[in-house]
Design goal:
CATH superfamily of one domain: lambda repressor-like DNA-binding domains
Distance between the termini: 50 Å
CATH architecture of one domain: Orthogonal Bundle
Radius of gyration: 19 Å
CATH topology of one domain: 434 Repressor (Amino-terminal Domain)
Strand order of the largest sheet: 1-2
Length: 87
């Protein structure tokens, strides 16, 4: 399997568009498109980093298939005596 195929498969598995994938790996959209189309191929070390950046975090992979919240529970900011937020 070529790097272009691996990159596209990783992007689709992460449910990202090309723009989001480019942002995730820190490259321009055009560079990402060239890689995914096979027009250019980055150095092997960059290939590894790009594919790793598109993989879901380990904790998300371990919970795959479990009932997950769409958004994690958020804490409300603490309020001081005068109604001022404390950090």
């Amino acid at each position: 399997m070529t790097f272009a195929e691996q990159l596209k498969d990783a992007r689709i598995a992460a449910d990202l568009c090309q723009r989001e994938a480019a942002i995730a790996i820190g490259r321009s959209v055009r560079t990402y498109q060239n890689w995914e189309q096979g027009d250019n191929t980055p150095h092997a070390s960059v290939q590894s980093l790009a594919l790793a950046a598109l993989r879901p975090p380990k904790s998300a992979r371990s919970r795959k298939g479990q009932n997950q919240r769409a958004h994690p529970k958020r804490r409300k900011p603490m309020m001081g005596a005068a109604g001022v937020r404390r950090h």
